[in-house]
Specification:
Radius of gyration of chain A: 23 Å
Number of helices of chain D: 5
Number of helices of chain A: 16
Largest interface: A-D, 56 and 62 residues
Strand content of chain A: 5-15%
CATH class of chain A: Mainly Alpha
Number of strands of chain D: 7
Low-confidence stretches of chain D: 156-183
Shape of chain D: globular
Shape of chain A: globular
Chains: A alpha+beta (404), B mainly alpha (440), C alpha+beta (273), D alpha/beta (183)
Helix content of chain D: 25-40%
Largest sheet of chain A: 3 strands, antiparallel
Number of domains of chain A: 1
Oligomer: heterotetramer
CATH topology of chain A: Cytochrome-c3 Hydrogenase, chain B
CATH architecture of chain A: Orthogonal Bundle
Order of helices and strands of chain A: HEEEHHHHHEEHHHHHHEEEHHHH
Strand order of the largest sheet of chain D: 1-2-5-4-3
Number of domains of chain D: 1
Number of strands of chain A: 8
């Protein structure tokens, strides 16, 4: 008797359909001191699972929230639902291929995920990037930063229950994305930067779209912001909520807009300059409050600064090649290099070790969202369930980067 | 045999026509024989018949109203989002919500194994019942209300408050923490906002001396300034905020805040049970808007009296037999009269296109004429139009708010009710009472 | 922040109302197709020149450069022989690990298959022989392998993949899909009933009937909802009582011909709990 | 490249540095032993002449012979990245002191290093797996990781939990879960 492998049917008695009593997951056993503390329920407290399928988690995140009524007593983010083992994959790929594995990490602003490994590999190869390529990188990165921040602004409103800003944000983002698609060919995962330059020079369609957009970008974004920025409900839900002070932020390893919202003017573009940023003129916007509203406002100020940078780059763009002369097969000398760029969420870094072969021996990817997600617990303790979402939205994590 | 050569339509006719004629004859005979008896029965039990008819009509009203509101919400929010919104099914996507309703009907009605089955099953019924029972007292026009209760306002608040019991039942029986939180939020929110809601209309009750909604509408029948929104502006604001919370609309939709507690009390519901919650929500929006327009916006009173007298008396009885002949020929003549010039305008327009356009234009014109005639001849039609106009304006405002505002946090919401709305409504009550005392 | 409370809300409402009347941005998709940028790399195609001949020179550079190995080349040469082949399997096999193997859905690589097996693979060969190395009978193969070892060793899975040519992902997927297949040794337990003449006379048939009714399974098969198997005992154990039931090699002594049904029902109840 | 930083580091930590300070591009690299690691990092953070207040990255490295923990620091005083490498950690039982007392934000990065390499950070209160399931048996980024064997060792909680027969465990303690009518 042979049983051919056919399409499985749920009537097959060998397929386990759990009985109702089996649907409850067993409570996890505490493995650490901290987890034991978390799992210990006091009178009137209960656990609420937010995610992995929950309308407001950015990606596939699960947060186990210990609540007392509506009040959050403690919470424990559970990661790994999106873990792809990118670092391991990169160890098994050659240097060019590694770039397209890091590309989908932070899918909202994926140019930055390319810029960091490319920076590290260029250090390993000791190659000078042509100036035109540097300018193009700055230009595209700032565009991508604006795309990310406008989307953040809509997301933040969506997590607070406003449904309109996200769609307006997507309209703005779409214009930038279409523009970058004309330049790079892709809409989400651009895969545009190469070791030693960029893949293809600026083309006419990109430039005409860019010029078109630049003429009304600032006004349009300002107009969109009018919906939320002064809205009393929005301000009351974000002001004074999730307040982070500068000392704690530094101790927690926070970078990017979240750190600048606490009043620390730390920006890799200033403090660890890369590409042509030292030659450009721009401010590092900061706020002193450190609450959700400050984090929101810092990002909005950054959009304006980015528009300013783009303007300068377009005026100073030199002529020349966009790719350095490099062998087809990248085979750097043994060594170590750390490349970091200032992404829309903070310092995005890659630590690459070469052992002289065509594959990285070890490639460590540091994602700022990963660090910032740690803050959700300390910042929301004692607040309400609704604030968990508001604080998390204001920290702006992207789970693709967190889970790697 | 003739049958084998008949088309399906012909066969249907061949079966139906004899049946219809026989059935019609039997029915006529029955009416002739039993007519007086039926008439006498209806006459003797008029209250019961009236009640049954009113119940059926109010129940039937809620369904198209909910469909219309769902469509309005989809479309208006889409337009404000710079989208087009539903546009595929029906003109402008208008049938979209009906299709949604059908979809919900045929979806699996799943009962999770751990729920409290009787309560779980009953909860959507209670919610829907509470919202459609309140439709009964809404004064659409003078003499056009299902049940003209003397204590209509009180009935409204009492039955309207029943809905929260259903929400609590749903939240509790679902065996889900999100549902529980949603149910408790609903209870807390409804109870808190019931108080300013009720207190804000007490001023009007003092002014009019009645709880009957038709009489409150009647009290505003003078000029525009007699509307209570101008005589009691503070009460109107409080009332508006409170009904927003009562109907669980943005910015007070905490009971089903999907970013926080997934879908609140409705998390575990699917299929038509969820449909009941969904329908009840929109029927609620309609009835609170209707209540606001009845209590504060003068209900069915026209805001302006037309400068000309709309009294048109057309006596058609003099035409005699010509009337039916004219009625039969008029559409044909009208279509031709409008279609021929269109045909003559351009050579590119085909004859059938011109005729179609002529028919449509004639149809629109005659509908407008008949509507105007009805408006002029039948006062309830004009009143109903005014009432619905006000109500739908309010509904538009609700949808507009939903497209604009984020959600208030639950503690801010409760604080707002107890710290601001309640004192304000008490102040309003005090001032009104003092004014009545002093002027009396 | 506005001075008058509520003015921010009013301003927002005004903004949405103006947007209400503005032109819409929706792209009417099926009617209006979005333009694909010329640099788009989304779709692979073989380009032909103006005379209709393929421009591809089969230089394999595309397949070599493709990071996720989605480009594979194969074909026939001018004499109709299968000559051209370029695939990741040969090129990258030596430096790919099992992760890549499972991900890309191929048979086990040479490097992985070359590792010495930790278990005796003869039962696997026997099981494969029975179905003539046909991967369509995967479930049957896996079941008989599990019958032999009591679980599915990884080396056996690799061997099955190598021998049948089935993707490792498919073998692994089949093994994880069915619950009665397990990867851990020692978890499977058997209830073996002796069917010798003595036992049948003493009531083994009733025991079998009761057990297969209670467990809802056929005799000689795994019990769907647990790790138990209902089997026949090959020979009667020496000095054992006569309806003989052996659970995990342990003969059951409480059973007698009188209490056969009740004992079996109680046993089933014990495992169902 | 910040020459002054190299000089200052050599002067301050002369004896504890395992190799001379190395500099390339905008990176300065020092190596300290496991025992000195936390003290060195504390000094780098606290002393005003260094003021390395920001921990940009913490990661583990498996070289095949030994384990390393690598810290990347940033200071407001210097444009250079400071890389502190702690080499020579035993591969069979990797163990270092935790940085959580100094930078609480290192907690998750240490959890990640534990998850991927099995490096135990003493003093981290929450050292458990962060990406892989709790009952996963091995550490994926180690050079001796072999997936197929590993998969057979790990019960893969996420998948199997759905299939495993089990009684409902009372997470809320005190209330009892209702059985469904069918169960």
């Amino acid at each position: 008797m042979t049983t051919p492998l056919t399409k499985p049917s749920l009537d097959d008695p060998r397929i386990a359909i759990p009985a109702a009593s089996e649907w409850y997951e067993p409570a996890p056993t505490a493995q650490t001191e901290r987890q034991a503390e978390f799992l210990n329920l006091r009178d009137g407290e209960m656990f609420v699972n937010m995610g992995p399928q929950h309308p407001s988690t950015h990606g596939v995140l699960r947060i186990v929230v210990k609540v007392n009524g509506e009040q959050v007593v403690d919470l424990d983010p559970v990661l790994g639902y999106l873990h792809r083992g990118v670092e391991k994959l990169c160890e098994n790929a050659d240097y060019h291929q590694a770039i397209c594995y890091t590309d989908p990490l932070e899918y909202v602003a994926s140019l930055f995920c390319e810029a960091a490994p490319v920076a590290a590999f260029e250090k390993l190869m000791d190659v000078e990037v042509p100036r035109r390529a540097q300018y193009i990188r700055v230009l595209t990165m700032e565009l991508n930063r604006i795309a990310s921040h406008t989307l953040f602004q809509g997301w933040m409103a969506l997590d607070l229950g406003g449904i309109t800003p996200i769609l307006w944000s997507f309209i703005e983002r779409d214009e930038i994305v279409d523009m970058l698609a004309a330049l790079t060919g892709q809409k989400l995962l651009y895969n545009y930067y190469r070791i030693g330059g960029v893949n293809g020079d600026l083309n006419h369609e990109f430039m005409s779209r860019l010029g078109n957009w630049m003429s009304r970008a600032a006004a349009q974004i300002d107009s969109n912001l009018g919906l939320m920025n002064e809205n009393e409900i929005f301000v009351r839900r974000t002001r004074g909520l999730g307040t982070l002070d500068a000392a704690t932020a530094l101790r927690m390893g926070v970078t990017g807009p979240n750190l600048r919202a606490t009043g620390v003017p730390f920006d890799l573009r200033r403090d660890h300059p890369y590409l042509v940023y030292p030659e450009l003129e721009f401010n590092v916007p900061t706020r002193d409050e450190g609450d959700s509203l400050a984090r929101y406002m810092v990002r909005i100020d950054e959009i304006r600064e980015s528009i300013r940078i783009i303007d300068q780059v377009l005026h100073e763009m030199p002529d020349g090649p966009v790719m350095a002369k490099l062998p087809r097969l990248i085979r750097p000398r043994p060594g170590r290099a750390f490349g970091a760029v200032e992404g829309p969420r903070g310092a995005y870094g890659v630590y690459a070790i070469s052992d002289g072969t065509d594959q990285p021996f070890r490639m460590r990817i540091h994602d700022p969202s990963f660090v910032h997600l740690q803050l959700v617990g300390p910042l929301t303790r004692g607040n309400l369930i609704a604030d968990t979402m508001a604080v998390m939205a204001s920290l702006d994590p992207v789970m693709g980067g967190v889970d790697k | 045999m003739v049958w084998s050569r008949m088309t399906p339509g012909g066969r249907a006719l061949a079966v139906l026509l004899p049946l219809l004629s026989v059935g019609g004859a039997v029915l006529t005979a029955l009416l002739v024989v039993a007519g007086p008896f039926i008439g006498a029965t209806i006459g003797a039990n008029l209250p019961i018949v009236r009640f049954l008819a009113a119940s059926v009509i109010t129940f039937l009203i809620t369904v198209p109203v909910a469909f219309l509101l769902i469509y309005m919400e989809m479309k208006i929010i889409a337009l404000m989002n710079l989208r087009i919104g539903p546009d595929r099914i029906g003109p402008g996507g208008a049938v979209m919500s009906v299709v949604h309703g059908l979809k919900v009907l045929k979806k699996e009605d799943f009962t999770p194994p751990s729920v409290d089955v009787p309560v779980f099953t009953l909860a959507p019924v209670v919610v829907y019942l509470a919202s459609f029972m309140t439709v009964m007292v809404i004064p659409f026009a003078p003499d056009l209300t299902s049940v003209g209760l003397e204590f209509g306002l009180l009935y409204f608040f009492a039955i309207g408050g029943l809905g929260v019991v259903g929400l609590m039942m749903a939240g509790w029986s679902s065996f889900n923490k999100y549902s529980l939180l949603g149910g408790i939020r609903a209870a807390a929110q409804s109870i808190s906002y019931e108080i300013p809601l009720t207190l804000s209309v007490v001023g009007i009750i003092i002014l009019t001396g009645t709880l009957s909604l038709p009489k409150i509408v009647e009290a505003q029948s003078g000029s525009l300034l007699d509307w209570f929104i101008f005589r009691q502006p503070l009460a109107a604001i409080i009332f508006f905020i409170a009904i927003t919370a009562e109907a669980n609309r943005t910015p007070f939709d905490n009971t089903e805040a999907d970013q926080e507690i997934v879908a609140g009390f409705a998390t575990e519901y699917s299929g038509m049970r969820f449909g009941f919650f969904f329908f009840a929500e929109y029927v609620n929006v309609f009835i609170v808007s209707a209540l606001f327009s009845a209590v504060f916006l003068g209900g069915s009173n026209a805001p302006i009296s037309l400068p000309f007298s709309p009294e048109i008396v057309v006596d058609l009885s003099g035409l005699g037999l010509l009337l039916p002949i004219a009625a039969g020929i008029a559409p044909l003549l009208g279509t031709l009269a409008i279609g021929l010039p269109i045909y003559a305008i351009s050579a590119r327009i085909k004859a059938w296109q011109a005729l179609l356009a002529g028919f449509l234009i004639f149809g629109a014109l005659s509908t407008a004429a008949i509507g105007f005639w009805a408006w002029a001849m039948l006062p309830p039609v004009a009143d109903l139009v005014w009432f619905l106009l006000k109500t739908f304006t309010l509904i538009f405002i609700f949808v507009w708010m939903r497209a604009t505002l984020p959600r208030a946090r639950i503690d801010q919401l409760m604080g707002f009710a107890w710290k601001w709305l309640l004192p304000a409504s008490l102040l309003n009550l005090f001032v009104t009472a003092a004014a009545v005392l002093l002027t009396a | 922040m506005a001075r008058i409370p509520g003015s921010g809300i009013v301003r927002g409402m005004a903004l949405t109302l103006t947007r209400f009347f503005q032109p819409k941005k929706t792209v009417m998709y099926p009617e209006v197709k979005p333009d694909i940028p010329p640099r788009n790399r989304g779709r692979l195609e073989l380009v032909t020149d103006e005379r209709g001949t393929l421009k591809c020179e089969t230089c394999f550079q595309c397949a070599q450069a493709c990071p996720i190995e989605c480009i594979d080349m194969g074909g026939t040469d001018t004499k109709g022989r299968y000559a051209v082949h370029w695939g990741p399997a040969e090129q990258y096999a030596e430096r790919r690990e099992e992760s890549a193997m499972r991900r890309s859905g191929r048979t086990v690589s040479d490097a992985a298959a070359a590792q010495e097996s930790s278990v005796d693979l003869r039962p696997v060969e026997a099981a494969l022989e029975r179905v003539d190395y046909d991967p369509h009978h995967m479930l049957q193969i896996l079941e008989s392998v599990q019958g032999a070892y009591g679980y599915l060793p990884v080396d056996a899975l690799k061997r099955i993949s190598r021998a049948t040519g089935a993707w490792y992902a498919m073998v692994y997927g089949t093994a994880t899909f069915y619950k009665h297949l397990t990867f851990e040794p020692g978890r499977n337990r058997t209830i073996a009933v002796c069917r010798c003449a003595n036992c049948l006379v003493a009531g083994a048939g009733r025991v079998i009937n009761t057990l297969s009714f209670e467990f809802g399974t056929e005799f000689g098969q795994a019990i769907p909802w647990s790790n138990l198997r209902l089997e026949a005992l090959s020979t009667h154990l020496p000095d054992a009582p006569s309806p003989l039931v052996v659970i995990d090699g342990e003969p059951q002594r409480e059973l007698s011909s009188r209490n056969a049904e009740s004992w079996a029902a109680a046993l089933a109840g014990r495992y169902a709990a | 490249m910040d020459r002054a930083l190299a000089t200052a580091l050599t002067e301050r930590f002369g004896s504890t540095l395992l190799t001379p300070v190395r500099q390339r591009f905008d990176e300065t690299e020092i190596r300290v032993s496991v025992a000195d690691a936390i003290e060195t990092l504390r000094a780098l953070h606290d002393e005003t002449e260094f003021a390395f207040e920001m921990l940009i990255d913490l990661c583990g490295v498996d070289t095949g012979e030994e384990m390393q923990v690598v810290y990347h620091l940033s200071s407001s005083r210097s444009g250079d990245w400071l890389r502190v490498i702690v080499p020579g950690i035993d591969r069979s039982a990797p163990r270092v002191n935790s940085l959580v007392s100094l930078w609480p934000g290192a907690e998750w990065m240490e959890r990640e290093a534990y998850d991927m390499f099995g490096i135990i950070f003493e003093g981290n209160r929450d050292l458990r797996r962060i990406y892989m399931p709790d009952d996963y048996a091995s550490h994926p980024l180690r050079k001796d990781f072999y997936l197929a064997d590993d998969a057979s060792r790990s019960p893969a909680a996420g998948v199997r939990n759905m299939e495993r027969a089990g009684t409902p465990v009372d997470a809320t303690r005190g209330t009892t879960l209702r059985k469904s009518p069918g169960a």
